[in-house]
């Protein structure tokens, strides 16, 4: 909280190499961090395990001087091997209880909620954040249930005690709406990775989020 009790929102970059449009992956992430990204998730669906670990370690080295945590999507083994700061899991990934047993104390655990039942169940889990997923329809991820939309985010805010992240279809035009309706963390892929300048995009998104 700031001194006037305005919540400080986190800008969370979720990576997607194809969305970087052929530009150097590490350059895109570092530009975004310099522009204002405060958390990074490495989301790799097609890399071999070894390449995933190598990428996680290199990213961890880049993020360390900025004090920006690295979260690994789906894979606790990769997170442990790279000494990442946490893991994000969805409803078809490793169950929270097992993940919690495998991760050392103090690591970040993020969980996606795709339905009201997921939100209610997540009250039993000591997670770092609950992701309202997806907030809006998005071409970046198509294996989804129904988007929550703003009314759904408001419902989750009323029914969850967790810190909330919102992800899916968020850009500079709607980020403020997500931030003022209950999401403390705003997670973004394409509006940063595919922007002509990831630095400018992150900077504008951060400003728009706090306006
Ligand atoms: C911050 C954040 N929220 C939601 C997701 C989606 O996770 P999941 O449902 O497991 O889908 P995949 O990302 O694994 O395709 C996320 N990755 N990050
Ligand atoms: C990984 C993920 N999980 C839910 S929606 C999504 C993709 C979000 O991508 P974008 O920010 O480009 O809409
Ligand atoms: Mg997953």
Could you characterize the architecture of this molecule?
This protein has 211 residues and is α/β, with parallel strands linked by helices. The protein has one domain (10-210): Alpha-Beta Barrel (TIM Barrel), CATH 3.20.20.70. The chain has helices at 25-35, 49-63, 76-81, 96-102, 116-122, 149-159, 175-179, 190-193, 198-210; strands spanning 10-14, 39-42, 70-73, 86-89, 108-113, 129-132, 164-167, 185-188. Strands 1-2-3-4-5-6-7-8 form an eight-stranded parallel barrel, surrounded by six helices. Helix 1 runs parallel beside helix 9. It is globular and about 40 Å long. Mean pLDDT is 96; it is low at 1-5. It binds the ligand Cc1ncc(COP(=O)(O)OP(=O)(O)O)c(N)n1, 4-methyl-5-hydroxyethylthiazole phosphate and magnesium ion. The ligand Cc1ncc(COP(=O)(O)OP(=O)(O)O)c(N)n1 binds next to strand 4, strand 5 and strand 7.
Quaternary state of this entry equals single chain
Strand content: 15-25%
CATH architecture classification? Alpha-Beta Barrel
CATH fold node name: TIM Barrel
Structure summary:
4-amino-2-methyl-5-(diphosphooxymethyl)pyrimidine binds at residues 41-45, 73, 112, 141. The protein is α/β, with parallel strands linked by helices. Helices cover 37% and strands 17% of the residues.
Give the SSE layout.
Elements: E1 10-14, H1 25-35, E2 39-42, H2 49-63, E3 70-73, H3 76-81, E4 86-89, H4 96-102, E5 108-113, H5 116-122, E6 129-132, H6 149-159, E7 164-167, H7 175-179, E8 185-188, H8 190-193, H9 198-210
Parallel strand pairs: 1-2, 1-8, 2-3, 3-4, 4-5, 5-6, 6-7, 7-8
Bound molecules: the ligand Cc1ncc(COP(=O)(O)OP(=O)(O)O)c(N)n1, 4-methyl-5-hydroxyethylthiazole phosphate (TZP) and magnesium ion (MG).
Domain Thiamine phosphate synthase/TenI: 11-192
GO molecular function, one term: magnesium ion binding
Binding site for Mg(2+): 74, 93
């Amino acid at each position: 909280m700031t001194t006037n009790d305005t919540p400080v929102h986190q800008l969370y970059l979720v990576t997607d190499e194809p969305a970087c449009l052929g530009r150097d992956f590490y350059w895109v992430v570092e530009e975004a961090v310099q522009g204002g990204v405060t958390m990074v998730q490495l989301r790799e669906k097609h890399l071999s395990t070894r390449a995933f670990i190598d990428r996680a370690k290199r990213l961890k080295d880049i993020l360390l001087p900025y004090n920006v945590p690295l979260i690994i999507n789906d894979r606790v083994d990769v997170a442990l091997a790279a000494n990442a700061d946490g893991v994000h899991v969805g409803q078809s990934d490793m169950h929270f209880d097992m993940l919690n047993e495998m991760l050392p104390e103090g690591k970040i655990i993020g969980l996606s909620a795709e339905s009201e039942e997921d939100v209610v169940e997540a009250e039993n889990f000591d997670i770092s954040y609950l992701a309202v997923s997806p907030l809006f329809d998005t071409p970046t991820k198509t294996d989804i249930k129904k988007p929550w939309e703003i009314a759904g985010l408001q419902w989750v805010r009323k029914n969850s005690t967790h810190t909330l992240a919102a992800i899916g279809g968020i850009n500079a035009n709607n980020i403020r709406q997500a931030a003022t309706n209950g999401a403390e963390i705003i997670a973004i892929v394409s509006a940063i990775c595919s922007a002509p300048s990831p630095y400018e995009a992150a900077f504008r998104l951060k400003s728009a989020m706090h306006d």
